[in-house]
Design brief:
Layout: E1 9-11, H1 27-30, E2 33-36, E3 41-44, H2 45-50, H3 69-79, E4 94-95, E5 104-105, H4 107-112, E6 116-117, E7 125-126, E8 161-163, E9 171-173, H5 174-188, H6 198-206, H7 217-220, E10 257-259, E11 267-269, H8 285-291, H9 304-328, H10 336-344, E12 348-357, H11 363-371, E13 380-386, H12 394-410, E14 415-416, E15 423-424, H13 428-432, H14 435-448, H15 459-466, H16 491-500, H17 502-508, H18 520-532, H19 537-547, H20 552-558, H21 560-567, H22 576-582, E16 584-585, H23 591-613, H24 620-628, E17 643-647, E18 658-660, E19 665-669, H25 674-689, H26 692-695, H27 698-702
Parallel strand pairs: 12-13, 16-17, 17-19
Antiparallel strand pairs: 1-2, 2-3, 4-5, 6-7, 8-9, 10-11, 14-15, 18-19
Helix pairs in contact: 12-14, 14-19, 22-23, 24-25
């Protein structure tokens, strides 16, 4: 096609690429091979994309898809000094994107050396040592075959064997899925088993599969759907009255051919079957007999349209079968704490990331600042320091930080709705700043690093993210300001409600004429679909990407039921029984001592029940914060398990409880009476939580 300067760019099957020095013309592997005759220059498009020393500085229609000729020649000169680690020849223009790695290859040589080329963002390349990899979280079910070629496949993830990240049931040969992607392209490339598109495409791009940004190959074939434009044009009446023959059909009138409304494969002139001019419904003799049960269905040749419709129904049945197979597979039998604990094994205790926080109000700003650092690693332990906390304890500071962080995230501008039931809000500034990704990433970090349950997602948001429950239907509470449409009880009220929200309905594509009140339900369903899904596609996508931090999103997809209570509120309030179940009591071996310890345990249980009933100065949340530095059990659970031990003092009036939050351990004094036990425990907890002066007066303390 013509380009700038009247130079001509043509695709050729001969000629050597100036970068890789190969003459192969394989668009699927190397991209389009392009020759600029005026400059005597031939290059593979992928060789240009992956070259480390060139960037696209021109418009898309300039030179080679925006790569300027002068820049290409500079890159050729640069690479002429670099030797390929595979073929040992000069001209290696592609390098591993890890700065410390010196691996250099020609692009085709890189494919042979298991390089992964990511066709997204800055088009990075990774050598075999630094290439991204997949993980298998569940045991594959037999029999196993490639979901494209259907040939047997060994379920061991490698460079040549990939799997779907959504259903974990589809396995692919790399060459097969690349051929499939090249044919289906961006609009039709999806998992062949679960039909997931977004997550599947993102994962395949990450693993080096090239997905063309065009329509599918079968859509680009010339006259590919020509047969759909053909209709049956033949009069099959016993006696045809048309002087121009049975194939003649006028635009209208008695000699217009009318086709059978059931099969479409028989026709007649109106005149030949005594049809009136306004009649267009006609049934052929075969179909009429079959409908009336007088003979089996006709065995005549189907029209091309009927064949395609039958094929479409077949594909839908196959898709439904796949869905039913997926739903019948055994889910991973794991609780949310078990899953989070497995993910937490990624966290290195030897490396830490320092988080400096001014105060509780600056928690979110501090977290975002750390997350946005180029060298941030989510696998490092969080070392949190509050500037106003002189006696810093890392476990206590970390749990305080994560508790305040989740609370701040709930109030973020990317969420809307009542407390404890938040949906995503559409915020253009947050999209521009990629805040959806960052908040999702912070929530994932909080859960895996031992933070509290999220507890504020609405069921609609959880369903949008993880498709659980599968039969969930949005409610009017999810609709926001346009819910008044559903409250209309008459046609007059409905029209008034629609008129007041006309601009919103038009923007949502839901504006229509309503003739009956019964059509209101369908309108509300369409508005709900737009409000919760369509308008939030990009925010949901970025939010999901953030939740992928440390592999959380994929694990939640495998155990959606177990994680529902973690993400959706309300968080269960503490009770005396639930607090008692958290703790393991460490008794001494001496029987005499055990009797005193059992008495103290009875005091402890009584104190918990009085806390629950509000008859103590401290609450159960205050008590748990004193012992473990958090007012609720972390989603990952306590590690180690909270425990209680005992000590005695020669002076009971000076024996106060002590805690060791690093080990979630409580030291209880063995005191002679419950009143003294309660007084000392109240005093200690209130002093720790800063409520001493507000709850106790000096006179009471001196008694």
């Amino acid at each position: 096609q013509p380009t700038k300067g009247k130079q001509r760019r043509i695709s050729v099957t001969e000629g050597i690429c100036s970068l890789c020095k190969r003459c192969d013309d394989n668009p699927e592997k190397y991209g389009e091979k392009i020759t600029l005759q005026q400059h005597n220059l031939t290059v593979h498009y992928f060789c240009l994309l992956m070259s480390s020393g060139i960037c696209q500085r021109g418009e898309e229609d300039e030179d080679v898809h925006g790569f300027l000729v002068d820049d290409i020649k500079k890159e050729i000169r640069r690479s002429s000094r670099l030797r390929c680690m595979k073929c040992k020849k000069v001209g290696a223009s592609v390098g591993c994107s890890i700065k410390s790695c010196r691996q250099m290859v020609h692009m085709p040589c890189g494919l042979e050396q298991d390089f992964i080329f990511q066709f997204t963002d800055l088009f990075p390349s990774f050598c075999k040592k630094h290439a991204p990899s997949q993980t298998c979280v569940s045991s594959p079910s037999l029999p196993l075959s490639c979901s494209v070629c259907l040939e047997p496949i060994e379920p061991i993830l490698s460079y040549n064997v990939l799997k779907c990240p959504a259903c974990h049931g589809s396995w692919f040969h790399r060459n097969c899925v690349q051929h499939y992607a090249h044919s289906a392209a961006m609009f039709f490339f999806k998992c062949t088993l679960c039909n997931n598109k977004d997550q599947f495409q993102q994962e395949m791009l990450r693993m080096g599969i090239y997905i063309p940004e065009r329509d599918a190959a079968w859509e680009l074939e010339e006259n590919a759907y020509e047969d759909l434009l053909q209709v049956y044009q033949h009069c099959d009446a016993v006696k045809c009255h048309s002087h121009k023959g049975r194939k003649y059909s006028s635009q209208s009138g008695y000699f217009e051919i009318v086709r059978c409304k059931l099969c479409g494969s028989r026709g007649t002139h109106r005149k030949c079957s005594n049809l009136k001019l306004y009649e267009s419904d006609w049934i052929c003799g075969d179909c009429k007999a079959a409908v009336e049960g007088k003979m089996p269905l006709p065995n005549h040749v189907e029209s091309p349209l009927a064949i395609r419709q039958q094929r479409k129904r077949l594909f839908k049945n196959i898709s439904d079968l796949h869905s039913s197979l997926i739903s019948k597979r055994q889910c991973v039998a794991a609780t949310s704490p078990e899953v989070l604990m497995d993910l937490a094994h990624q966290i290195s205790q030897q490396q830490s990331t320092e988080v400096l926080v001014e105060d509780d109000d600056g928690v979110l700003e501090a977290a975002l600042w750390v997350l946005r650092q180029s060298d941030f690693n989510p696998c490092c332990t969080l070392s949190v320091k509050f500037s106003q906390d002189k006696h810093s304890n890392n476990i206590r500071s970390q749990r305080r930080f994560l508790r305040r962080l989740v609370s701040k995230l709930q109030m973020s501008e990317i969420f809307e709705g009542p407390d404890g039931s938040k949906n995503l809000a559409l915020n253009s500034k947050a999209l521009r700043d990629d805040l959806y990704f960052e908040v999702g990433s912070l929530l994932a970090l909080s859960l895996v690093h031992g933070g509290p349950p999220v507890g504020f997602f609405s069921p609609a948001l959880y369903h949008s993210l993880f498709n659980y429950p599968t039969n969930y239907r949005p409610t009017l509470q999810d609709l926001g300001d346009t819910a008044f449409i559903a409250e209309a009880k008459s046609m007059k009220e409905l029209r008034m409600a629609m008129q007041s929200a006309s601009q919103y309905l038009e923007a949502a594509g839901c504006w229509r004429k309503i003739r009956e009140l019964s059509e209101k339900d369908m309108l509300v369903e369409d508005v709900l679909n737009f409000y919760l899904i369509i308008r939030l596609q990009l925010p949901l996508q970025r939010f999901r990407e953030g939740l992928r931090t440390l592999g959380l999103f994929e694990q939640v997809q495998m155990c959606t039921e177990a994680f529902h209570s973690v993400f959706c509120g309300p968080v269960e309030r503490l009770t005396a029984e639930s607090v008692m179940e958290l703790f393991t009591v460490r008794f001494s071996e001496e029987k005499e001592q055990q009797e005193k310890e059992n008495t103290t345990v009875d005091f402890w249980k009584k104190y918990l029940h009085e806390c629950e009933e509000g008859r103590c100065a401290a609450s159960l949340e205050d008590l748990l914060t004193f012992i473990t530095a958090t007012d609720s059990a972390p989603s990952i659970g306590f590690h180690p398990t909270p425990s209680i031990s005992f000590f005695s003092s020669p002076d009971p009036s000076c024996a106060f409880p002590q805690s060791h939050c690093d080990a979630s351990h409580l030291f209880l004094p063995m005191l002679p009476s419950y009143e003294l036990f309660k007084k000392h425990l109240d005093y200690t907890v209130c002093q720790f939580t800063g409520m001493l002066l507000s709850l106790y007066n000096v006179t009471f303390l001196l008694k």
